[in-house]
Design brief:
single chain, alpha/beta, Rossmann fold, 4 domains, 45% helix, elongated, binds guanosine-5'-triphosphate, binds magnesium ion, GTP-bd_M, GTPase activity, GTP binding
Length: 441
């Protein structure tokens, strides 16, 4: 849709030298736009135009010179500011703010039903205050078609609210199903580890490095929703949905989930719209917070703060910070960055997902940080069911010893506490199968 469409990118900062236009340009390119010009301004926000009125006129000239079809603004624009800037531009030229742009990218990449619903929900939440503004403008000035949203219609706000609650309901149902799936996976002895981090930090690359090469058929048999692929590209928001693969970290059976990256300056409602996707992070047993260590300390710090803010309220799991891309950083520089970021990223693991360097240290650390397993020893008669219990223990925990002595078998194993409880009742069942107990009558 927007492939190759020329756009002008603009950004305002309150003070200081030049605004950094690199991330917003990357986002525009990720949406498929061709960035043909950039403009920035350092001044306080203008109530009417956001930029100074002179800068708004300069944007219009840049559009005319380059034939751009839209102006992409990195700042948070109010509905009236969007309208006023639009009024300066040649007719038909759109004003796109940071959130609309991100929603556009998400919309293009949303394949699964859940992702589509989340994008739709975010779009509606974005539209609601604008529909309200449009209503009041229409009443005041009788200007129909404000911001290209179509004719003002009395019932539009009510429609939006009804759609929001319908989608919210459907997403809640999906979230419930996913929560029970996480519980089933835990009951089957898996630990759930999630990769989180800023977009483009290298999560998907690390995922492929950690995932064991179980063939897909076997993967599918175990868990129909496991996905063998996780794309990587030097592009923002390559990953949108969630991908889960098995990883062998030594003794534990880990299911590793890769998901959407974080990005700064997102309004609350946008993050909320992706809540059920982020649940795979919030409800994991351990979170690996991936940071691109090849960037400047300042960029790393800003991105870490964004990640912590996103995780802060709802995350329940311990966090291990992973400094990634160390193939691009020399030893002294890495040490300097590690020290500078010590407060935000205590005791990090430094790896390269691309070359595999130090990935072994990471798997050791994963094992060390996962919730502790309990040790247990069971003595079973060599009766019906004993062998299937032993193989169940192999599937759900870590069997350390298995010894046969004539009529009995001794198994020593470790597993998560819930599994140990289940094993005990299964063992009681083997010793005295239901219906065959002597005291039955
Ligand atoms: N040099 C180097 N490049 C890496 C490393 N890990 C990832 N990259 C590159 O960084 C870019 C982003 O990697 P991805 O794995 O797609 O990052 P991501 O965090 O999944 O990104 P999104 O899904 O877009 O949020 C790609 O070009 C990777 O090849 C690394 O350890 N070293
Ligand atoms: Mg990715």
């Amino acid at each position: 849709m927007s492939d190759g469409t020329p756009v002008v990118v603009a950004k305002r900062v309150d003070s200081g030298e030049d605004a950094d236009l690199s991330e917003i340009s990357d986002l525009a390119r990720a949406a498929g736009y061709d960035v043909v010009a950039t403009r920035s301004q350092s001044r306080t926000e203008d109530a009417a135009y956001h930029f100074g009125e002179g800068k708004a006129a300069e944007l219009a000239r840049a559009v005319a010179e380059t034939g751009a079809a839209a102006v992409v603004v990195d700042n948070r624009l109010g509905p009236y500011q969007t309208y006023n800037i639009g009024g300066k531009l040649p007719t038909g030229v759109e004003v796109i703010d940071r959130f609309t742009l991100i929603l556009e990218i998400f919309g293009q990449r949303a394949n699964a039903r859940k992702a589509q619903l989340q994008v739709e929900l975010a779009e509606l939440r974005y539209e609601l205050p604008r529909a309200e503004a449009k209503a009041s403008l229409a009443k005041r000035d009788e200007r129909p078609g404000f911001m290209g949203l179509g004719e003002y219609d009395e019932s539009r706000e009510r429609d939006i609210k009804a759609q929001i609650s319908r989608i919210q309901q459907e997403l809640d149902d999906i979230a419930d199903k996913e929560e029970s799936r996480r519980e089933r996976r835990r009951e089957s002895g898996f630990d759930l580890v999630a990769l989180a981090g800023y977009t483009n930090a290298g999560k998907s690359t690390l995922m492929r490095r950690l995932a064991d090469d179980l063939d897909v058929g076997e993967n599918e048999g175990l868990h129909p929703d496991l996905d063998p692929t996780a794309e990587s590209e030097d592009r923002l928001f390559t990953t949108l949905g969630t991908t889960t693969r098995r990883a062998d970290t030594g003794t534990r059976d880990v299911l590793l989930t890769d998901t959407v990256g974080f990005v700064s300056d997102l309004p609350h409602w946008l993050v909320e719209s992706f809540e059920s996707t982020l649940d795979s992070v919030y409800r994991a047993d351990l979170v690996l917070l991936v940071v691109d260590a090849s960037e400047s300390v300042e960029a790393m710090r800003d991105k870490l703060v964004t990640c912590h803010d996103t995780l802060y309220e709802r995350n329940e799991a311990p966090i291990v910070t992973v400094l990634n891309k160390i193939d691009r950083v020399d030893g002294p520089e890495l040490e300097r960055k590690r020290a500078a970021l010590d407060a935000l990223a205590p005791n990090p693991v430094a790896v390269s997902g691309l070359t595999g360097e130090s990935v072994g240290e990471l798997t050791d650390r994963i094992e060390a940080e996962l919730p502790a397993w309990r040790e247990e020893r069971l003595l079973l008669p060599l009766a019906d069911g004993a062998m299937s219990l032993v193989s169940w223990l192999y599937d759900h925990g870590n069997v350390e010893r298995e010894e046969y002595t004539g009529e009995e078998v001794v198994v020593e194993f470790s597993a998560r506490p819930a599994i140990v409880e289940q094993a005990r009742s299964k063992a009681a069942e083997v010793r005295a199968p239901a219906g065959e107990t002597e005291s039955a009558d």
